[in-house]
Structure prediction request, 582 residues.
Amino acid sequence: MFKIALNSLLNRRLTVLLSVLTVALSVLMLLGVERLRSEARNSFANTVSGTDLIVGARTGSVQLLLYSVFRVGSATNNIGWDSYQALAKDRRVAWTIPVSLGDSHHGFAVLGTTGDYFKYLRYSENSALQFSKGQPFAKTHEAVLGAHVASKMGYKLGQKIVLTHGSGEGAMSEHSDQPFTVVGILAPTGTPVDDTVHVSLDGLTAIHEGWESGSASLLSSTGVLAADENRALPPPSSITAFYVGLKSRTAIFSYQRAVNQYTDETLMAIMPGVALSELWQLMRIAEQALAVVSGFVLVIGLMGMLTALLTGLNERRREMAILRSVGARAWQIFALVMGETLLLVSAGITAGIALLYALLLACKPILREVYSLNIAINAPSPLEWQLIAATLLAGFLIGAIPAWRAYRMSLSDGLSPH
Amino acid sequence: MKRLIAVACMAIPLLSIAKEHSHGAHVHGAAEIDVAIDGKTLLITLESPADNLLGFERAPKTDAEKAKLKTVTEQLNKAELLFAPAATAQCKAAAPVVTMPSFKKGEHSDISAEYQFTCASVPSSVALPLWKNFPKFKNLNANIATAQGQKQIKLKPAQDLNLK
Prediction:
């Protein structure tokens, strides 16, 4: 019986193959959307682990998160250095990391900070930053590169790089009078750190001296202000934001209130994880729309298969009748068609999953490069297994239709055509 | 991902309005709870418009209102009437710190209360008897910080606070 069923399938291999392919593509779509969604979330969540609060000028919490951590958008206002000093001294605070953004290097963000960045910043599940080469910056004109900056630009330790004023790539406003020396390259993290050039706050102050008008003054372009490493620099007048680690997690909310009620400057403190939750709430409609569309694609795929099966069934009246005549019972006919459908759906699902992983492998570098999205290639998540099970169940229900028809027909049909 | 973010950016003006609500804004029926767990300490703070608890937001005038203020203050000082951490965690409540409003003229009044528990183990959830005891609460915004990270969840009446 099994052999007969197999031969019957082989006999109809083109339709069968097409049915399997439709199911495979719709499963690919369904799982792919889900995978991208969860990986994007992970990628974001990994970036903000270990930071209790981020303090910046008062704005939307998601906006503050996006510009201070993901270098997207820009700050509406900066924080005065005095306010930072006062808030960082609070007894609840364990560490702070000041960040100053605004300049760039060949499209990569330049971030001014202190040595504490390398000591306290955490990513993924509480991992500290590692140096693949070199060490943190110690002098004014030294820079530490993220892994991706170094690999994309082909930079090595000791190389001189020139920062660009602002975020454009215009050569007109380069800080070419004060090049920076690469002293360290970080190991890859899968976060925006990889796409960042890190310099000291002093370095940023130094290159912007004499730039008050927005472009290089005569003094700065003649190089008078350039590279005297031992010159004492004033602290920066302002920073973009700062990350806060507290001694105890239970102090988060009271410290947050203290920042929000800070009287000298209008500031806000956000919990990065909470701001991310808010971002996902915003994105939920788009995500649901995508999920609905991929659900429909699956339904269409299964319908296509049903059509093929039902059409095939008419042509197989003879086959069924012969099977009956050699002693197959009606329920065996039912099981035969049912089994066939399930086999097709299972083959479709398997092919879909295989396609998904092949695509993930192929697209991983592209997603990394173009969208800074880091995709981990993991086994299917419980939710994905549920989707797979739901597909199988849908296949089972759809298979029941032709199976039932075959069952009915095999009872009434004779060998001779009507 | 940049495009994803760009979409999010367009929605930011909307969100920044929404965010104003959680700090200093005042929506009757809604309240904010902040939940933090560090080691064996569970800290929950409640920030709510006075209306949710009292039913009025000015200095009490009638005897009934005065009595209501007294009862509510007493209720708020009993942690178990609002928050009940899972029994398996064996949490003990410290004396709550309740700040009742001063009822200044022309201002909305807010009540804040802080509840601290010392637990034998990290509670997996906290039941919320406050839904039953203060039926004027219609939704709660919970900001949560645990060793697993931070998140925000929105709660509807009769829901428990899941900390996993």
Q: What stands out?
A: Residues 200 and 282 of chain A are 35 Å apart (CA to CA). Chain A has 13 helices and 15 strands.
